[in-house]
Fold:
Amino acid sequence: MTDDCCDPVAPAPRAAGTRWSIALAGNPNVGKTTLFNALTGLSAKVSNYPGITVERRTGALTLPAGAAELHDLPGTYSLNARSAEEQITFDALAGLAGQQAPDVVVVCLDATQLARSVYMLLQCRELGARCVGALTMVDEAGAAAPDARALSELVGCEVVPVTARTKRGLPELLAAIDRAVRTERRAHWMWTPSPALRVQLDVVRGALPASWKASSRYRGADLPAGDDAIALWALTCFDASEQEADELQGVPPDFRAIVLAQQFALDDEAVLARWAWLDREIPKLATIHPDRSLTERIDRVLLHRAAGFAVFAAIMSVLFMSLFAWAAPLIDGIDHLFKALGAGLRDVIGQSMFTDFLVDGVIAGVGAVLVFLPQILMLFLFLGFLEDCGYLARVAYLMDRVMRSMNLHGRAFVPMLFGFACAVPAITATRTMERRRDRLLTMLVVPLMTCSARLPVYTLIIAALIPGSRATQGLLMVGMYAFSVATSLVAAWVISKTVKPLKAKRLPFIIELPPYRFPRIKDVLRMMWGKSSMFLREAGTVILGCSIALWALLYFPRDLPKSAPDYAALIAHAPDDDAKAALAAREQAAHLENSYGGRIGHAIEPAIKPLGFDWKIGVGLVGAFAAREVFVSTLGIVYAVGNDADEHSQPLRQALRTAKTSEGKTAYPPLVGLSLMVFFALAMQCMSTLAVVRRESGGIAWPLFLFGYMTVLAWVVSFAVYQGGRLLGFG
Amino acid sequence: MTSSLAEIPLGRSVKVRSIAGPRAFRRRLLEMGLVPGVAVRVVTIAPLGDPLRIEIRHGQWSIRKAEAAQIAVETTP
Structure:
């Protein structure tokens, strides 16, 4: 019945010191992560595949045959790929694109979804991978679980039932991997290509680039059936049609041309042949079906017209509160800790330029990174929990209609909501979407949401510059939130219509709604820590570097112009402490104006004058790049009311209200306040956001685009507000 | 008689006849096991009217109406 194309290849001898490479593959939601954690324990490390934001998790394994590395591949339903993301799994399994082919592939087989998971095993076996099946969800399947031995005979490789939670079956699985390592490679096809497909396979196989051939990928003898599998993959995945062009990487153009010259009419054949085999064989093993009634009962509530949305709103409120309110004491704590640390250090080593560098540059910079940690940890904790129990897929189902109208993915709702707290964790939350296009589009509009760092700025501006009762001021604040939601949704729509790589293609939106499962807390915590530490490593270093650079910009040069008064002498002769403090604040203001940042403020004045801003606001905008709320303390320094002014500082509010232009007019009428708020709502003034977008998009092109479009948008809209308001006679 | 999956009353189990639409879309559905002859059922419609929740081979999926319209099904056994 089975058509085995047997091309035995003896295992390549290992060089001393090299490790065996074992890959873990399988469909999503089959307990692959739990198995990975159970096998690798604390040795797991999360990183990214080079040049692409697909998480790569690796851990150590000890086999009788020697030390081994276990690679957890992204969960997928098939090895066929259109996007660079999907291609990762295929490249990793086949040993393409510079990756080393694994010595053994462990394929997770879900006992409750047997046919579908064996489908992937068939694909791996066609390639010539040495496979071991790990039969998961056996406890959930109960009586419906297939007999592992019968399954093993059917698929032609060892199958070991495992229960990762209790570690049952793990020693047996390791022993099976160890035996597989020593076997010869064979490529097994359970179906025979039709004569027409055979012809195409021969043509493509003959044209395979040298590095794509089994002899190179597996560093051994020829494996023609394995090369056929690569040829079939190329025939199935390459597509040059305008609507559906693939985005596969690293394909030599001449090879692509040969593949594309073939007829595509045959590419359903492989899928249908595999399913015909599965539909013939699998029912013999799995005669009864797993019980889904509990999931069905929960879904009746959670997907209900009224109750479903109520629960959804409640869950989202808890999530939002956790980021917005519950994380606040921790964030403040970290903030105070680093301020105290800086002050303490200043006392110990004394006043010097080096002290300023250490305290205001390095320590403040590390603090600027660590303030994100509470939110990032909480976010990954909740997201991991919701993902693992199966709820995030339901969020996409519930919200798809709304998000789709703006060409966003159903899952973009969660990152957009988090954007109200902080764009940095929100952008890391885009990872719950598989497609790069969906992630990028969401990343580009999340920074428009009113994040918590904009609040102090709005509070100061509204309190100082906008006249009216508390009620109208409150209403204006609500208006700013509504404005941000509207702009981000409209921006998503416009970007998806105009920016070529993000254009809404007719991509199918088919997501699995897996059975509800209680998440394993250990897995959630491990994922949370892995992702958070990756954030610290990769985005954190950029944020730290930018903080130090920004500090230098606002600190140097140190000598004031000759015309400046001798502050040291004045302070020495001041009558009392108040006068001394006032003079010190004026000296600080003079230094800031004279700094490179201050000069930038002056230099950009012509550009921001049409928006109603003077150079002092310009300096504030430069400072705001560290974090938007720094705008407030920078203005505090400029207006010589001290460097610890916050949005509730009465002297600062008074200073802004009474500020005069050189012609003696009010510098900041209400119209300027409004224009400034609009500018803050739309401008990309947050280096941390840019750092995290750079990390998540894998390059500097998208953060530059983000910065460019938001700055232009902010300028244009503020210009319209200010100039329009003046035409209408305000200000 | 055939009609599309988007027009089938909720809860009724029908058999897939063929899948239209672009190549990658069609193949993706086939790979999920939505091959001709397999039983499929629309379980519910999302509260906002789209997408559909369908059941194939004891697994459930969310699929948009526009996509379900590409799936031709047999309405008579």
About this structure: Chain B touches chain A at residues 22-33, 35-36, 38, 44, 46-51, 53, 57-64, 67 (CB under 8 Å).
